[in-house]
Amino acid sequence: MERAADRPSPARSAPSRVCDGIVASLALVPSVFVYGTVFGGLAVGAGLRSIEVLGMSLLVFAGASQFVAVPMIAAGTSPLAIVLTTYVVNMRHYLMAATLAPAFSTFPRAWLALVAHGINDESFAVAVARQNPPDPWFFIGSVVVVGGSFVGGVVVGTALGGLVADPARWGLDFAFPAVFLALVGAQLRSRADKLVALASGTLAVIVALVLPGNWHIVIAGVIVSAVAALVLDAERA
Amino acid sequence: MRGQVWLVIVGMAIVTYLTRAPLLLVLARRPLPPRLRLWLRMIPLAVLPALALPLVLVARHPDGTPVALGLGHPPLWGAIVVVGLASLRVNFLVTVAAAVATVAVLRALG
Questions:
Q1: Measuring CA to CA, which of A6, A69, A228, B20 is 20 to 30 A from A83?
Q2: What is the mean pLDDT of residues B50-69?
Q3: Which among B51, B76, B92, B109 is the top mutation candidate for probing chain A, defined by the most A β-carbons within 10 Å of its own β-carbon?
Q4: What is the model's pLDDT at position B30?
Q5: How close, in Å, is residue A20 to chain B by CA atoms?
Q6: Looking at the complex, does the CB of residue A7 fall below 8 Å from at least one CB of chain B?
Q7: DSSP character for A165?
């Protein structure tokens, strides 16, 4: 049984491996920072207070789901529907946590409870691309950089966001669906991926026409992904 | 309304933590079953279009009845721009900015 601590490579100290993670993640700083800025600006434009936007970014710390929640909050959607939608959007963390878990098997549980909150797409991608199972200290270094860039961007964005008086005039209300569609576009790898995206979007439109509120997101998202997981070849995952 | 925003934020924080912590704490060295991994990978692929398409294609009158949208609906063209640029692997922020600009220009013209 191979454990992270048994592998030959980590002759290097924990601090220097944290530094490696920081350096490797510096290339992500501009895009994560601007992503946070856009979120902060749009959230303030949608009517949230700066302190609420910052609180959400620190406590939830999951950009895509925050983009999803803000227009729902602005539209007065029921809290239950927003929280459930957040859960479904963030279920991808289960996959990342499961992949990271072996690397952290020697860490104290209290540390794991803290590290868990830092799990994010960018740090996961950087750490796993480097080595798999990833280096836990490297991952922590990356989380510090990505988290700092995102929250820093949000702070700047909330300050700037109040400057735009009429977001719709500048097409900024469309930034939310644009972000969602761009995130999908970046993930479409195969014909099956495209089929899943198209089927879910179509089902969601049909459900949204019949059922008021925002339940179409959870309904279409869960049904179509589950059907795809049952039908497609499991070894693709 | 104000108190409810914090209620929503705390609820979001709790369920999000529940997607991160359990498997990191429990699943030390057992891999997930392949079909479960596949489902978890498919969820964002299904959820994001389910969010986006109704925002683009479904609008409602104040009384709740759906509005019939035509080709003059700016977000429709914005969506086409996003999908086109994203499939060409154009930078994320450039893609979003181009789509927003498309909607802004069409609204200014319309």
A1: A228
A2: 78
A3: B51
A4: 66
A5: 22
A6: no
A7: S
Q: Which whole-number Å values give the CA distances from B58 to A156, A179, A198, A205, B51, in the listed order?
A: 33, 18, 16, 7, 11
Give CA–CA dist A145/A120, Å, rounded.
11
Residue A133: cis peptide before it, omega within 30 degrees of 0: yes
- The alpha carbon of residue A87 and the mean position of all alpha carbons in its chain are separated, in whole angstroms, by 11
Is there a contact between B49 and A180 if contact means CB atoms under 8 Å apart?
A: yes
Does B29 sit within 8 Å of A102, measured CB to CB?
Answer: yes
Q: Is the pLDDT of residue A4 over 70?
A: no
CB within 8 Å: B58 and A234: no
Residue from the list B24, B29, B93 with its beta carbon closest to the beta carbon of A112: B24
pLDDT in tens, A129-156: 788 678 999 999 999 999 999 999 999 9
- Secondary structure class of A41 (helix, strand, coil): helix
For residue A8, the distance in angstroms to the closest alpha carbon of chain B comes to 18
What are the residues whose beta carbons fall under 8 Å from the beta carbon of B50, sequence distance 6 or more? A200, A201, A203, A204, A216, A217, A219, A220, A221, A224
Domain boundaries, chain A: 16-167, 188-236
Place of tokens 């995130």: A183
Contact residues, chain B, for A174 at CB < 8 Å:
74-75, 78, 99-100, 103
State the pLDDT confidence band at A8, using cuts at 50, 70 and 90.
very low
Which residues does chain B have within 8 Å of residue A219's beta carbon, measured at their own beta carbons?
50
Tokens found for residue B80: 């086409």
Identify the closest residue of chain B to A172 by CA–CA distance.
Answer: B100
pLDDT digits (tens, 9 = 90+) for B6-56: 999 999 999 999 999 998 988 755 667 888 888 887 887 888 888 889 888
pLDDT at A6 over 50: no
Q: Which of A6-10, A59-63, A99-103 has the highest mean pLDDT?
A: A59-63
Predicted ipTM of the assembly: 0.82
A44 touches chain B (CB under 8 A): no
